[in-house]
Structures are given as structure tokens and as C-alpha cells.
Amino acid sequence: MHLGSAYTPNYFAIDDILATQERTPCKFLVNVPKLGSKLNPSAEEDDISAGTALELPMWLVQQLGSGRQPVVSVDLPRIFKEAYREVLKADPNAVDLHKFSLYFYELGSHAKEFDSRGDVAEILIHSFKGRFRKIMDLAHNTSSDSTVQDSLDVLERILYNNGHKARVKLNTWLITSGIPLDAANMVINHRKRKRVEIEDFI
């Protein structure tokens, strides 16, 4: 997943393909002939009757559930139901997002299309904002220990790895460059002015 092109459907993106493989609950609104055994291997009839509930991949549900005459009504994937949202609202850092879904944010960007109340979009933002500082802290303060990534989804792992690599490069440069880092004149002048103001106040 490249951060610049993430969260937009991309036919050739492997991450997008894997994310939309997640099975999503739906209910057929019309009778569909000849697809019973193809969409549901356990079905005894060839036709799908209106009212039949199935779990189909997100990419297929998106096509069947859109348009002026949708074939199915779509429910949210399990990990975006209210019970899971409440857990994330309470403390997103305590959640093992990897167990929720490898592509939590990517899948959520598709699932929010079927959420008229906007709860999915809200929990995606809340979870990301709540977990971002933890990810950066891990990237800056831990060694290259793969276990720290166990609770992260794919997007978070990319952020962690990029942050960790940037920190290693910065540390290497600071050690090998031999160039001392001095405060900018603007910072020095600001400190002097602040000190004068404090002395005048005293």
C-alpha cells in the first residue's frame, strides 16, 4: 500500500484486492437464477431467492449493492459493528488491530459507503488519531523487534517501518557527519528576549 494512492479503488493494487476480499453480510432483494451454487457452495438450489442472506466479498457486494436497482442490501462487516466500535472508542491503543483485520483502514474506506450515519468514517479517524502517537513512539524508541508490529494492521506497519528507518538514518547521520547542531539565531534571539521580559517582570 503506497500512502499516496491508498484509500482509492485501484484495480491493479494487490493491497486493494486483498482488502476487498473480506466477506461482507448482505441480503438479496430479488430472485437471482443460476447462481445459487456458485455464490453459495452449500446451497441445494441453483437459484437464489429474495431474502437469502449470504456473506460475499466486499468487491462483489459493492457492485451488487449499488445503482438504481440494487440486487442486495448490504450490512457492515463484523469488525465495524457497534460492539467493535465501542471497544475502539474506549481505547484504540488497547486493541489488537491485526486480529480485527489485516487491512482495517483500507476495508473501512470501502465499508463506509454502506454506512449512512457516518459511524465507520468516525471510528476510522478516531482510531488512527489515537494510535498514531503510539506507532511513532514505537518507531523512535524501540529496536528492530518484529514483535512490536504484531498488533498493527498493514497501513500502521508501513508507518512504523518508515518511521523506524528514518530514525535510524538520522542517528547514523548525527554520529558520522561530525557536524555540530546549533540553535538557529531566531531561537537564540527569542530565548534572550523572553529572558529579558522575565527579568523586567521580576
Give an overview of the whole structure.
The chain is mainly α. 50% of the residues lie in helices and 7% in strands. The chain contains 9 helices and 3 strands, in the order αβαβαβαααααα. Strands 2-1-3 form a 3-stranded antiparallel sheet.
Secondary structure layout plus pairing:
Elements: H1 14-19, E1 23-28, H2 36-39, E2 53-57, H3 58-64, E3 72-74, H4 82-90, H5 97-100, H6 104-111, H7 119-141, H8 154-176, H9 185-201
Antiparallel strand pairs: 1-2, 1-3
Brief summary:
With 202 residues, this protein is mainly alpha-helical. It is built from 9 helices and 3 strands; from the N terminus they run H-E-H-E-H-E-H-H-H-H-H-H. Helix content is 50%, strand content 7%.
**What's the β-strand tally?**
3
Give helix % range: 40-55%
Most strands sheet: 3 strands, antiparallel
Shape descriptor reads: elongated
Mean pLDDT: 85
From the N-terminal CA to the C-terminal CA, the straight-line distance is: 57 Å
Number of H- or I-type helical stretches:
9
Spell out the helices and strands N to C: HEHEHEHHHHHH
